[in-house]
Amino acid sequence: MFQRYSRQREVVFDVLASTDNHPTADWIYEKAKGVLPDISIATVYRNLRELVKHGKACVVLTGDGKEHFDAKTFEHPHFVCLKCGMVIDVDTCGATDLPKCKHKVERCDVTFFGTCEGCLEDNENKN
Questions:
Q1: CA separation for the pair 25, 94 (Å, rounded)
Q2: Can you give the pLDDT at residue 100?
Q3: How many other C-beta atoms are found inside a 10 Å radius of the C-beta of residue 87?
Q4: I want to staple 56 with a disulfide (CB 3.0 to 4.6 A). Which of 43, 51, 111, 122 is the partner?
Q5: Burial of residue 8, with CB atoms counted within 10 A of its CB: 0-12 exposed, 13-18 middle, 19 or more buried
Q6: Angle formed by the axes of helices 7-17 and 41-53, to 10°?
Q7: Mean pLDDT per 10-residue run, the chain (127 residues)?
Q8: For residues 13 and 56, is the Cβ–Cβ distance under 8 A?
């Protein structure tokens, strides 16, 4: 487990757990500054790494070159909008069993890429 209690780590986790937006470290940093004005971006990154290391958070790779974080550590798929960059959880059954093979699946990461409902509606309204 963690070496010792850290107020900074608690705030970073609370900020992450308070949103479903799959934020970047920069977004978490901006929100955490509202609670701890003297927190640094390096502290946010360090504590995110600790949270991931100890299974309290996970990294979601979206293809935008940035790490996004999620406090929901159970296996679940994500959807990434290629227009606006929104990342959302997808409510669907997972495929963690490979049929008729001798492999043991440890985890499954599924990310769908496409256009979100909001961007589709915006596009229809422009036409």
A1: 27
A2: 62
A3: 20
A4: 51
A5: middle
A6: 80
A7: 81 96 96 97 97 94 90 89 89 58 73 92 81
A8: yes
Q: Supply φ then ψ for residue 79, to 5 degrees.
A: -125, 130
Quote the CA–CA distance of 99 and 113 in Å, as a whole number.
Answer: 25
What confidence score (pLDDT) does residue 50 get?
Answer: 95
Q: How far apart are CA 41 and CA 44, in angstroms?
A: 5
| E strand segments, 42-125 | 58-61, 67-70, 78-81, 87-89, 111-114
End-to-end CA distance of the chain: give it in Å, rounded: 55
Confirm if 113 and 80 have CB atoms less than 8 A apart.
yes
**Please, what sign has the CA dihedral across residues 95, 97, 99, 102?**
positive
pLDDT of residue 5: 82
Beta strands in the chain (DSSP E): 58-61, 67-70, 78-81, 87-89, 111-114
Give the Cα separation of 108 and 93 in Å (integer).
12
